[in-house]
Amino acid sequence: MRKISHILSATSVFVMSMILSCDFLEDEPESLINSATFYKTESDAVAATNAIYEYLTVGTEGIFEEGFGGIFFNDYWVFKDILSDNCDETIASAEYQSLSEFKFNADNIRIQLYWQDLYKTIQAANIAVDRIALIDMAELKRDHLISEARFIRAMMYFEGVRLFGEVPLILQELQNLEEAVVERSSTTSVYEAIVEDLKFAESHLSDSYRVGLGRPTPLACTALLAKVYLEMGEYQLSSDQAKEVIDSNSFFLWDDFADIFKLANANSGEIIFAVNYSGTLSQGFKPNQYHVRLLPPGLDKDGEGPENAWGWEVPTTDLYESFNPLDQRRQTTFITSFTYSDGTVENFDPHISKFWDRQLEPRGNNTDADVIYLRYADILLIYAEALNELNTGPNALAYDAVNQVRKRARFNGTIEQPILPDLAGLDYQQFKDAILNERRWEFVMEGQRYHDLVRHKKLVDKVIGSGKEKATPTVDHELLPIPQRERNLNKNLTQNDGY
Question: What is the pTM (predicted TM-score) of this model?
Fold first, then answer.
């Protein structure tokens, strides 16, 4: 029998051992769960479910030097744009530079740590699902808490299958961490498990118990199913799920694109599900890294300007110039100058500023901004794309969906500017290309571009034509490598082509 370190490295084994052997104390991270004495009451079940969220935000910082932060701390959204034509990497770090240049291999530590974080989160979700089911408590609340865990588990497998293809499918708590045999499962099996989790959660999440604050709702499950089905090529199912979200009238597009990212608008408007960073769901240090990684450096003067910004990920010239100058998304997404209170203006190359709420966080630095995982504009564009695939060309509903997004982009708060006219008269491929462009403009640094390019089979062409001169993508880069460290420990783990 093989040790579970075959898929979870030694550090992961230690974390999981902590989960199963540490006493749960109020002043300790909630992720340290004792399976022998825990899971007896409703409050235990609530705490156990809350613990899963820490893996999305805090992660296991403080325990290990590597792997600081959780799934959404930075790599989720960094990966998807530097592995594309959207962004270049400026940090003098081989682990990130090689990703941006498509020169990474199976030893890349960022890929290794992301794999570990996925499975640490999955294990925490599995523990909650299995143990909460045994607690004597109100059925509605019990099923709701299990559904939260299954929603997060589905998210993690969705990330895993899109990035790595076939991955080990583990759907039960691993009772004995010293012995386990786990091989890669087919992508079909993984997607089936994702769909099953989301359907269960959709049917059992309560509309009134534990709502908001970064927790999933039934419609969040519906929305994620629409996205999952699109990736699966199940276009009728994708369009059906997207239409259900649209017809619910539960979400709307803010008139001003910038309002999406205002701290006061968290969990409202078009936000369907976001990973909460306001300090309400987990303990310890957990502001995300938007400002640190994206805002321009060198502007901290006399108590003004971002005080802890490094500009590690910067937009390519190709991305910046692809926007119409009057597009409101360009105004929000990028910053090219900063004006101090004395009127002095500092000009610089474009940096990404869309997540910076300057009124509430004028110095940047640590931020309470949530990481948006699903929003209404995404659902509208998913709906349009699925309908185009179903009908081998756009119909009126597809046009209406994408044109709602374009209308918002041309509205400057007073008038609709003479840009980005409603799409009309396009054939199948023209509309498909238009959707890909619209998604690029809409979702900079929101974890979308890499997957969009892979789904459209455009990764190589778009990156090579974007001016990223050092980038050398091939079709093999449509999947990331299975971390070599895991394969060294588990000879049953096969490798993706090209690595």
Answer: 0.91
